[in-house]
Structure formats: structure tokens, C-alpha cells
Amino acid sequence: MHFTPMAFASANQVNKNELTIYVAPNGDDKNEGKIDQPLASLIGARDMIRKHKKNTGHSGPITVLIRGGAYQMLAPLELNPEDGGSQEAPVVYKAYQDEKPVFSGGKKLSGFKVNELGIWELELHESQYYKWRFDQLYVNGKRATLARTPNEGFMHIAAVKQNDWIKGTGRAVEKAQHVFSFDEENFSHLKGVADEDLDNIRLRAYHKWNFTMRYLDKLDKDSAQVYTSGGGMPPWNPIKEGGRIVFENFAAALDEAGEWYLNSKGTLYYIPLPGEQPEDAEVIAPVLDNLVLVKGDAANGESVEHVRFEGLSFMHCHYAVPPSGSEPSQAAAMINAAVMIEGANHVDFVNCEISKTGQHALWYGKGCHYSTVERSYLHDLGGGGIYLGETKAHEGANHTSHIKLHNNIIQTGGLEYPTAVGVWVGHSSDNEISNNDIGNFYYTGISVGWVWGYAESNAKRNKIVNNHIHHIGWTLLSDMAAVYTLGKSEGTVISNNIVHHVHAYSYGGWGLYTDEGSTGIVMENNLVYSTKTGGFHQHYGANNTIRNNIFAYAKMYQAQCTRVEEHRSFDFMNNIIVFDEGAVLQGAWEKIDIAMDNNMYWNTGGEEYDFNGKSFSEWQKFGQDQHSRIMNPRFKDPENFNFEFSSKKAIRRIGFEPFDLDASGVYGNETWIEKAKLPSRILAAFDEQVKLNMGKE
């Protein structure tokens, strides 16, 4: 249908200052965008807005109403400065009424045949002739497992050798070869690797707070050795003898229901789960590397302004493993996000969903300000949830600040890149992270700061308040916490959060962790329980305040500190520590410069109180805890994690101020609150892993 821009304007405007455009799954981007003649895509709506503005000079509010249903995205929605609005006239992409539009960056696959082994097979012509590859696959709404060995647990490395090729100038060698040797039992997992799979097979090695992913240069079955190359191992965190490793992406590893493999000839294999049939299965391979791109230039005054996404769902975003694999990267800060934003002000996501990604969900990069993500559901993520700022510091308009993340559910991430975190704040300041539910990640829940040591940092005045952070770490990585901080962070407040079920493979698994150079941070009114090595740990930092918190039931130590420095490290005041096993304090407590008093300690499992190898009275001789008490704080049922007070008489003696335990986490209608509860199978699996890790089974 042919129409003029002016005719379109009169048809779709409620009045001369408002424009409404409709999009529907059965639409056509050649239509007029009316409710009975909708467009077919977000890109079609964006292009119509551009044309309308150009032809009419329209400057009023614009709303794109999107009907419910499934949309296949053929390209990312890219917004530039011309696509924005103003405070009085925003551009809104919004679900129509209570309908649910779902945008997929994937391609549905069909035509599977079942071979004599019961394995599904599909010849992909795009892979055969155009070398199309993908690193994630979704079957019936679930992330399938890329064929791996062993299926459970890990192989263990017998020996590691690094041959330096290019030294470079950094602490780590610039380029090196690595030779991993295995004993006969461990190497048996690789005996079946076929020559045609050598270009595809990858290793994933887990070491402390990092993991390394590499393709293989050589597999020597006679010597039980694997050769790879890449960056030299960081001397502060190398892969060592006894290290844990798995191998993936080869045909011989395809041996368990739910696994898949795409060979070099373009044949896709999948072992179905019980009850799955190829004729009615939905199999989706992600195609697009991004789903939404917002590209402004803040430094030159060309930001994307006042755009809101509301009620939309985005899924199936691909992250391709690069030919070099993945070098160790804390917080998986080297990968991108399904939704990438830079140079943007007031670009908001409200009541949205992002899921089934190979990478992070959403990233406000450089030059972003005064934007909000609220009541959105981010889950089933290959990487992390929401990232703010960058690993590089920026000044002026390119410094990201004043982002609000409020009342969101951010769960089940790190599925491809386990070092990813729920919320990451790099070089970014003045952000609010509040009332979010963050759970089921393998590394850290919230990470703030990106400077190691006391060099100047611009990650200041961030507020992490009223969040519920739980089931973090599992037993995969180490040196991690529910809330982790780095560098000089004056004005940062971490308060009124409920943190629990934090565990690590070896050391670590803390609730609150002030790491290298953390400075000027206040941690108060937090409830932290069921951790591995402490509700609180400070590696090193300056002038931090830890007050009026409840730290309960850590398994090894209730609180730790490490490095002795000449300045005041932290104050530890008016806290309650309740436990039934392990030491009260562990580390450099007698030597570190701290002020520690008016705390309460209570062992619900007996009468032993280990203050870094000393009794309470011996500990007090160092001048600390002079007015602190060993006393029952009178919680109602602490063994079952009910930390309400049956009486406040005892806590008044240390000046403890009760705080509202019901104010943390998400809020709203019952459906939203129920959505934040992890399935019971995940809770049970976490507890089982903790028992095994602690040697209790």
C-alpha cells in the first residue's frame, strides 16, 4: 500500500503532538503502522519514526505498541542519536496492553532424523557450505549441553609445562605454549577423540577465581599430553598440577541425554531427553551476536536520549567463542552483552526480560547516565546480568554514572562463562543497585570497582541496598563473595542486604569482601549467613566501616582479615556474630590497625570461642572488643535462619539497632515475588555440593 507521510501522520496521531505505531507478528513493514495495518518488526518501527521525523518535523511523544507473539529478529535493533526523544517527548517501545511480545535472535531448526542409536541428526546446509557455527543450542526452551567429558566432575592435570615464546613487558608472558600431562585414568576420557574433531575440541580449566578456555594445537595420545597456546599464565593465578579441567565439543563426548555437537561437516547431533520427539520439538540455534545496540557519542554531545523499552522479552543471543578461546578474565569482563548501550541518557528497561544468552544480558558502557532497569527478569545467561561502566576509566561525559537497577530478578548465570557476575560496576559512580534478587551464579553476586590497590578510582558513591543475594559460588571457583569491592570507593554504601548460601571450591566464599585497596566503604545493617569462610573478609583496604551487621553460621571462620598496613584498615562495631562451628576470627587480627568494639558473639553449638587461636579474654588483651560481649542475642530461631529478635534487651547492651529484614529483595505482586524463588531442585543441589565440598558426605 502506498501512502504519503502526512497521510500516515494524521492516521496514527491521537493529536498533533503524539504518534502511535503498531507492530504485530502478522504485520508487514510496508504497512502504515496502524492497529489494523501493523508493521512487522522493531526495525520497521524505527525506520518509520526516522522517516516521519524527517518529513514532518515531528517532535512530540512517540509510542510503538507491540502485539504479543513471537518475532524472529533478522538483525539487531540499532538506535542512534536520531532515534531518541526528549523528556517531554520520549520514544517508547512497549508491549500492547498485557500482551507478551518475544523477540528471538535465533533460528528454528527442523527436519531431524533419528539414527540407529536414537540420536537426532540434522544436515545444516548453512554449516556445510557457509561454515555457520554456533556455540549454544536450545531445545524445548532449555539450554542444551555441549558434548563434554567427563559428564560430571573434572579430569585432573598431572603436570603443567609452559614454554615461553614471546616474553613481552608485562608480569605475564605475552605468548606461550602450554603442555598438560595426564595419568592414564584421566587421559582415558580423550582416547576416543577423532582426527576430524581436533579443530573443534576445546578445554576449560578452572583455577581460583578464573577459568581458561582454549582450542587444542595437538593431542598426543601416546604421551597422554595436550598442547595449547595463547597468553602466558598469569603468575598470580596459573593452572597448576592437580587442576580441574574438562574437554568439550567433540563427537566422542556425545554420550549423555541433553548433549549436542555440530561437526565440521555441518551435521548437528543431539541426544534427546526422555519424552522428546523430533517432530514436535522446538530446537533453536542462536544467530545474532547482539539483540539491541544503542550507539551514541556522549563526548561529542550526541547521546541517545529518552528511549524506554517496556514489557518486551529478548532471547536467543549468540556468543561465538573466538579462535583464541578465552583467556583468564575476572568477572568475564572481556565478553559483550545481548543489549549493548553507550552514549545514552535516560534509556530505560522496565518490566522486560532477557534470557537464553551466550553472554551478559545488558551493558551500559561508556557515556551512559540517568538510566533505569526496573522490574526486569534476567535469567538463563551465558554470562552475567547487568554491567555498568567499562574496564577503562573515562572522564567527563564518557564517564558512566547515575544508573538505577531496581526490583529486578537476576538469576542463573555464568552458564558459558562462569566468572561472570550478577551485577558488575567497573569504572562507574553514583549508581543505585536496590531491591534486586541475585542468585545462582558461580562467581560473585555484585562486584564494585576496577582498580587493584590505592591508585585513584572513579567508582565512588555507589549504593548497594536492600538486595537479596544468595546461592553464589557453588563449588566451582574460589576467592569470591556475594558482594565484592575493589579500589578507592569513597561514599559507597552497602546496606540492608540479605546475603546467604555463599560457597567456594577452596578458599573464599565470603558474604562481604573488601578486596585490594577497598577504601571508604560503609557496610551496615546487612544480614549474612551460611557462608564458607566468613560473613566478612578484608584482604586490604583503608577506612572501611563494618557496623550493625548480623554475621551467622559460616562454616570455617566467621570473619577474616589478611594484610597488615600502616593505616587504619577498618572499624568493626556493633555487629552480631552467631555460629555453631569454626573459628570466630582468623587472620592478622592482632596486628592489623582496626577499631573493634561493642560486638556480640554467640556459639549456638557449644562453648568454644576461637578468636584467631585465642580465648575471648586473651583476645581482649590486644585492646579490642573491650565492651563486646559473649551473649545470646535472642534470635527467634537462628538455626532455621529466622533472625527476628524474640527480645531486644540483650542487643541494646552493644548498641545494636534492629533493621527491617522484610525490606530486602524484590517486591510487588505475588507472581513477581514467586518468580524470584529458585526451584527446589537448585536449592537441594547447592546444599549437596556444599556437603561434598566440606567432606561431610
Low-confidence stretches: 1-15
Identify the CATH class of one domain: Mainly Beta
Major sheet characteristics: 15 strands, parallel
Which CATH architecture of one domain would you pick? Sandwich
Mean pLDDT: 96
- Kindly report how far apart the N and C termini lie: 71 Å
General shape: globular
Radius of gyration: 27 Å
Question: Which properties best describe this structure?
Answer:
697 residues; mainly beta; Immunoglobulin-like; globular
Can you give a write-up of this model?
- It comes from Cyclobacterium qasimii.
- InterPro entries: Beta_helix, PbH1, Pectin_lyas_fold, Pectin_lyase_fold/virulence.
- Residues 398-555 form the Right handed beta helix domain.
- This is Right handed beta helix domain-containing protein.
- With 697 residues, the protein is mostly beta strands.
- Among the domains are: 19-98, no CATH class; 106-147 and 254-285; 155-253, Sandwich (Immunoglobulin-like), CATH 2.60.40.
- 9% of the residues lie in helices and 38% in strands.
- The chain is built from eight helices and 63 strands.
- The strands form nine sheets. The protein has a 15-stranded parallel beta sheet that branches.
- α1 packs across α2.
- The N and C termini lie far apart (71 Å).
- Mean pLDDT is 96; it is low at 1-15.
Secondary-structure blueprint:
Elements: H1 5-12, E1 19-23, H2 42-56, E2 62-66, E3 69-72, E4 77-79, E5 91-95, E6 101-104, E7 106-109, E8 113-114, E9 120-123, H3 125-130, E10 138-139, E11 142-143, E12 145-146, E13 148-149, E14 155-156, E15 159-166, E16 175-181, H4 184-187, E17 202-207, E18 210-215, E19 218-220, E20 225-230, E21 244-248, E22 259-262, E23 267-270, E24 283-286, E25 292-295, E26 304-310, E27 313-317, E28 337-342, E29 344-350, E30 353-357, E31 360-364, E32 368-374, E33 377-381, E34 386-388, E35 400-406, E36 409-411, E37 423-425, E38 428-429, E39 432-434, E40 437-441, E41 446-448, E42 463-465, E43 468-472, E44 481-485, E45 493-495, E46 498-502, E47 510-514, E48 518-519, E49 522-524, E50 527-531, E51 536-538, E52 541-542, E53 544-547, E54 550-552, E55 557-561, E56 570-573, E57 576-579, E58 583-587, E59 594-597, E60 600-603, H5 616-620, E61 629-630, E62 635-637, E63 642-645, H6 649-652, H7 670-675, H8 680-693
Parallel strand pairs: 1-2, 2-5, 3-6, 4-25, 5-26, 6-27, 12-22, 25-28, 26-29, 27-30, 28-31, 29-32, 30-33, 31-34, 32-35, 33-36, 34-37, 35-38, 35-39, 36-40, 37-41, 39-42, 40-43, 41-44, 42-45, 43-46, 44-47, 45-49, 46-50, 47-51, 48-52, 49-53, 50-54, 51-55, 53-56, 54-57, 55-58, 56-59, 57-60, 60-61
Antiparallel strand pairs: 7-24, 8-9, 9-23, 10-11, 10-24, 13-21, 14-21, 15-16, 16-20, 17-18, 17-21, 19-20, 22-23, 62-63
InterPro entries: Beta_helix (IPR039448), PbH1 (IPR006626), Pectin_lyas_fold (IPR012334), Pectin_lyase_fold/virulence (IPR011050)
Organism: Cyclobacterium qasimii
Protein name: Right handed beta helix domain-containing protein
